[in-house]
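User: quick one, sequence for these C-alpha cells?
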C-alpha cells in the first residue's frame, strides 16, 4: 500500500476518491485548478463552448445534456448558465448523499421548478451505503469516499 501524502494547502490527500495528484511542491491538482480560475480568458472560453454545444442542441425538444446537481448554490448557478446563458435543455441528475437537510430538499425541489427541468435521483440502499462506508473507512481512511464516488460516477 502506498504512502498517503497530504496537500500542503487544503489537506486533501493522495487517496482522494477523485484521484487528486500531489505535485513536487506538495500542492494537489484541485488547488492548482483553483489557481487557474483567475488567469483564464473566460470570454474566449465562452465563445468556444457556444460553438461546441451547437451540435448537441436537440431539435426535437429532448435533453441536450446531463448536469449533476446537489441542490446547493453552485447547482443553481450552473443550471442558470446551462439553461439561461447557453440555452440548453438539461437533464439534472442528483446522487442522494443521505445528509440532506429539510432546506436542502426544498432547494432541490425549487431548483427543478424555477428552471423547469427534470431531475433523476439515485438512491442507494442505506444498508449498502453503510457497508461501502465501513470498507472505504478501513481501506482509504475516508468516510466521504462513497459520496464523492457516487456524485461523480452516477452522472
Ligand atoms: Zn489542495
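Assistant:
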Amino acid at each position: 500500500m502506498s504512502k498517503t501524502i497530504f496537500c500542503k494547502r487544503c489537506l486533501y490527500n493522495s487517496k482522494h476518491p477523485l484521484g487528486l495528484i500531489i505535485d513536487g511542491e506538495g500542492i494537489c491538482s484541485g488547488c492548482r485548478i483553483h489557481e487557474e480560475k483567475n488567469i483564464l480568458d473566460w470570454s474566449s472560453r465562452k465563445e468556444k463552448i457556444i460553438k461546441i454545444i451547437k451540435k448537441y442542441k436537440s431539435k426535437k425538444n429532448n435533453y441536450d445534456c446531463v448536469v449533476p446537481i446537489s441542490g446547493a448554490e453552485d447547482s443553481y448557478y450552473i443550471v442558470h448558465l446551462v439553461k439561461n446563458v447557453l440555452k440548453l435543455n438539461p437533464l439534472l441528475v442528483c446522487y442522494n448523499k443521505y445528509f440532506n437537510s429539510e432546506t436542502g430538499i426544498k432547494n432541490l425541489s425549487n431548483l427543478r421548478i424555477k428552471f423547469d427541468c427534470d431531475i433523476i435521483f439515485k438512491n442507494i440502499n442505506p444498508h449498502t451505503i453503510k457497508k461501502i462506508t465501513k470498507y472505504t473507512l478501513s481501506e482509504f481512511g475516508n468516510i466521504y469516499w462513497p459520496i464523492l464516488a457516487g456524485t461523480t460516477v452516477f452522472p
